[in-house]
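Anyone up for a design puzzle?
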């Protein structure tokens, strides 16, 4: 049946109360409140423990955690990584559980974040930690901080703690070369030589500390610092040691930041005091003056003075009487004698075989002080280049 509204231009159909259409409409109306209720359930809740809590929750305060390890100013070796950050837990006035967010930055303003992790569950005993998966780059300073949050409220960051990551410097003890172990008949001015120390890490300029003592406790000692030389480092004392004395020595290496360990201690004994030699063989003797008054200035004039005073025979032995006196007068500048174990013009004296006509310095620099040995044994002062410095023997008193 069609009915018309007053003033309506279109007809509408009435629905009988018990018709099928009426039942359908009533079912739809019954569903509408349920749908609206379902829609309301997806909105934020005001229940504090609800996952969909509307936040932040008024009145809830979360305190700042406290950074514990690494503490501010600590230095961490690169091989002591990966790093673990440890913080003292925060407090909260709310009922929601806390989680923690950790950050590490390469600057104090935290504009360059190098590590960040949040959602960290609180640890036991009032402390929470997180371990990094990778190492931080060495030779850098870092800063770290942490804060707590409950999903609705976020607490303040802790005060930042700064630390450094560095590559450790390792300097091994030097290896002692000479004098040898328990060496006897050692010259009074031996050259102490070590193989340079093995090292690793960013080592700076290396210096060696040589210590020498007449006791193995080093209660009485002299020492000298020497800058590292190529491959081996050595030093010669500036004055004579005592005759027939046992000495002990050891060495350590260091740079501006790291002091290396001492080497093992080594002992040696100096030479016996020489006995005055007999007068020179043949033709020689006192000459026209006293050789001890010839001075101590290196050069031809000194050699000529000694030569005139000694007036040596034209033999190898006669030449050596001049040579050892010249060396003795020049001992203050380090002059000594030259060991020569083979060849011509050799004189055996005080347990060594010496070159008859040459003197030697600690660095192996040799000078020819007599020409035409054993021909004329004339005075000379001629640079003869360098030899192995181990062939050097300090001057021995010829008197």
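Challenge accepted. My sequence:
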């Amino acid at each position: 049946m069609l009915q018309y509204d007053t003033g309506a231009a279109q007809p509408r159909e009435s629905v009988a109360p018990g018709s099928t259409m009426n039942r359908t409409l009533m079912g739809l109306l019954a569903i509408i409140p349920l749908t609206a209720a379902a829609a309301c359930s997806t909105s934020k809740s005001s229940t504090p423990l609800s996952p969909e809590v509307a936040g932040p929750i008024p009145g809830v305060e979360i305190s700042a955690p406290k950074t514990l390890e690494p503490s501010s100013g600590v230095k961490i070796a690169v091989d002591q990584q990966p790093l673990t950050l440890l913080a003292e837990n925060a407090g909260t006035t709310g009922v929601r559980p806390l989680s923690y967010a950790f950050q590490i930055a390469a600057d104090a303003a935290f504009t360059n974040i190098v590590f960040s992790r949040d959602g960290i569950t609180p640890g036991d005993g009032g402390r929470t930690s997180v371990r990094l998966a990778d190492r931080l780059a060495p030779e850098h300073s870092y800063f770290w901080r942490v804060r707590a949050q409950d999903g609705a409220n976020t607490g303040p960051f802790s005060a930042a703690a700064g630390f450094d990551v560095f590559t450790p410097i390792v300097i091994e003890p030097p290896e002692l070369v000479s004098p040898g172990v328990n060496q006897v008949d050692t010259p009074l001015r031996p050259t102490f030589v070590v193989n340079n120390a093995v090292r690793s890490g960013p080592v700076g300029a290396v210096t060696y500390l040589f210590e020498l003592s007449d006791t193995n406790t080093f209660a009485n000692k002299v020492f000298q610092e020497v800058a590292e030389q190529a491959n081996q480092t050595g030093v010669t004392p500036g004055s004579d040691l005592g005759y027939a004395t046992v000495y002990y020595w050891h060495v350590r290496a260091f740079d501006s930041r790291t002091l290396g360990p001492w080497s093992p201690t080594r002992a040696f004994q100096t030479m016996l005091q020489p006995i005055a030699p007999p007068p020179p063989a043949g033709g020689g003797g006192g000459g026209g003056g006293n050789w001890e008054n010839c001075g101590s200035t290196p050069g031809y004039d000194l050699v000529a003075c000694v030569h005139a005073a000694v007036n040596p025979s034209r033999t190898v032995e006669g030449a050596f009487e001049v040579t050892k006196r010249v060396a003795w007068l020049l001992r203050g500048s380090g002059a000594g004698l030259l060991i020569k174990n083979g060849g011509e013009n050799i004189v055996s004296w005080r347990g060594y075989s010496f070159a008859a006509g040459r003197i030697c310095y600690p660095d192996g620099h040799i000078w020819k002080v007599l020409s035409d040995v054993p021909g004329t044994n004339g005075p000379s002062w001629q640079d003869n280049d360098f030899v192995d410095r181990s062939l050097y023997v300090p001057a021995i008193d010829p008197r």
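A detail worth pointing out: The chain is about 10% helix and 35% strand.
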